[in-house]
Amino acid sequence: MVPYDSEVTYQLRDLNGWRFPGTSLAVLGFPVRHSISPAMHNAAIADLAAKDSQFSEWRYFRFEVEPEKLPQALPRFFEMGFFGLNLTVPHKEIAFDLIASIDSAAVEIGAVNTLKRGPDGYHGYNTDGCGLSKGIEEELSASLAGSDIAILGAGGAARAAAVQALQSDCQSLCIVNRSADRLENLLGSLQPIAREKGIPVKGFSPQDTSLEFADHTLIINATSLGLNSSDPLPIPEERLPQTAALYDMVYNPRTTKLMKTVSDRGGRSANGLSMLVYQGVRALEIWSDRKIDPKNMKQAANSALASKA
Ligand code: NDP
């Protein structure tokens, strides 16, 4: 067994004989080497432990788990006593059918990113929507409530954003996605909550010539475009309104091509680091039952990203 080190990326086989004497938490993903969640959580845990010694033996690790191995992995983590797990790409939707029970907000989203140990298995939550909402408030001084929202993308992150926007009583919701089947699937699953709340929801392809946003639309990029400098914009520049505010879920690089385009046209933009921090804050609150100060997670996230640059 390698020493217990939160800088290490562990494999599933490392669970054999896992005897960490404290409380183990972990993020599972594939790939997961890039994840800065251990740095963020261990910084917040150190702050928690300084105020309350019951957290002094808590530690957050990183495990690389292939998607096809998740069904056998989750019972192994439970057996080895892991108290809390975060799930990242591509596990959030796969885990949905593998756990003992699910929080009602996560049921609407159809994906979980935070698991907490219960007597008979893990209970699942989704903290991405909460992270997004707080990130938008903090970075753009804007609110999902009462806003015209356009979400670019229809994958797992877009789904969490769409449910959060509807639950927060946005004014209207527009989803823009490349593949028509994924778009239709998301629109279909949003129908019940949209109808109940009386919120208009529309869907478009990025190339649709009838695609037009109202001024002051709050645009959320939930596509993976922007991760690479050679990526095209998720929507043609001419479709962007002059006074848009953009929240780009991508945070590495810190300024995407879309963010720069919006800023150059006089709009405001923010990257997704605050969403990452606040979804982590909420996850640690769920596990610890304590209020978490975001300051330590933010500092740790910034230094971890700087060290990767
Ligand atoms: P998914 O793989 O589930 O979805 C990817 C989305 O991007 C789909 O809508 C897909 O469209 C679109 N897309 C991918 N490639 C292209 C392309 N070449 N052209 C047009 N559209 C494309 O990923 P997630 O939803 O989990 O994550 C999306 C992004 O959000 C990622 O960058 C991720 O890192 C980020 N994220 C950030 C978080 C944060 O805390 N800041 C939290 C969660 C995610 P299609 O359906 O057509 O394939």
List keywords for this structure.
309 residues; alpha/beta; Rossmann fold; 2 domains; 10 helices; 13 strands; binds NADPH dihydro-nicotinamide-adenine-dinucleotide phosphate
CATH topology (fold) name of the largest domain: Rossmann fold
CATH first level of the largest domain: Alpha Beta
Q: Poorly predicted ranges (pLDDT <50, ≥5 residues)? A: none
Amino- and carboxy-terminal Cα gap: 31 Å
| Topology order in helix (H) and strand (E) letters | EEHEHEHEHEEHEHEHEEEHEHH
User: Helical content, roughly?
Assistant: 25-40%
Which strand order does the major sheet show? 1-3-2-4-6-7-5
Proportion of residues in extended strands: 15-25%
The CATH level-2 architecture of the largest domain is identified as 3-Layer(aba) Sandwich
Question: Can you offer a commentary on this structure?
Answer:
The chain is globular, with a radius of gyration of 19 Å. The protein folds into two domains: 10-126 and 274-308, Leucine Dehydrogenase, chain A, domain 1 (Rossmann fold), CATH 3.40.50.10860; 129-271, Rossmann fold. By secondary structure, it is of the alpha/beta class. The protein has ten helices and 13 strands. Strand 8 (148-152), helix 6 and strand 9 (172-176) form a beta-alpha-beta unit. Helix 1 crosses helix 9 (273-288). The two termini are 31 Å apart. The site of NADPH dihydro-nicotinamide-adenine-dinucleotide phosphate has 25 residues, from helix 5, helix 6 and helix 9.
